[in-house]
Design goal:
Blueprint lengths: L1 E5 L6 H12 L3 E3 H10 L3 H10 L7 H12 L8 E4 L5 H12 L7 E6 L2 H10 E4 L5 E3 L18 E2 L6 H15 L1 H8 L3 E5 L4 H12 L2
Parallel strand pairs: 1-3, 1-4, 2-3, 4-8
Antiparallel strand pairs: 5-6, 5-7
Helix pairs in contact: 1-9, 2-3, 4-5, 6-7
The protein binds adenosine-5'-diphosphate and adenosine monophosphate.
Length: 214
Amino acid sequence: MKIIMLGAPGAGKGTQAKKIAAKYQVPHISTGDIFRANIKNGTELGKKAKTYMDQGLLVPDELVVDLVVDRVNQEDCRNGYVLDGFPRTIPQAEALDKALASLGQKMDYAIDVEVPDENIVTRMGGRRACAGCGATYHLVYAPAKEEGICDTCGKELVLRDDDKPETVQKRLNVYHEQTQPLIDYYTQAGILRKVDGTVDIEDVFREITKILGE
Ligand code: ADP
Ligand code: AMP
């Protein structure tokens, strides 16, 4: 099962992608997580990506596409995967389709997690990420057992640099301009499915399992 998560930044793509990965036993591939890991490890890719990420801009397509194509060709992806944060532009989607077509494959579902812009600002302001393992929490909607400490690895929870209010609006604008056109793209491909992302995390997941099957 090959799945793409679509939706604005902060819509809950990562939250749902992790649950899908656990239930359907497929890898969760988050390009944002890959870039953050590269930044943490001080790689060349990380240094390049950080200049765009900190400004709320997309990293150029040529730095993203090969990375994802290589990743989905790895052995653990043979039964499928869930892509979170990729594709984010039409050229990325076309490059993915082309790479899959050359292997006689195609994506099965693009799930659009719908959340209006007003809710996004609260979502991202309250998001906290673990500085150690990258797990995601929300101060109100998905709190850690002990405030500021990761349930899984015990490290500190931080506000992502790009979740600061001045960057959030910019990221939303970038989403509307460059990523939203993918909704038409995947509608035309016949694989778009929409879920209401404003309800509780478990209710969103229930809708997704209705689409993907139990
Ligand atoms: P994305 O991957 O789309 O950027 P996240 O999955 O990181 O978004 O979710 C953004 C924030 O909103 C996180 O703090 C997360 O805990 C919280 N969140 C996710 N889904 C919901 C939901 N259905 N209701 C309330 N808060 C949510
Ligand atoms: P995310 O964790 O998905 O919110 O991504 C964080 C940031 O990483 C984005 O704001 C972009 O700067 C960058 N990024 C992640 N995925 C992509 C992508 N597919 N294309 C371009 N930039 C990306």
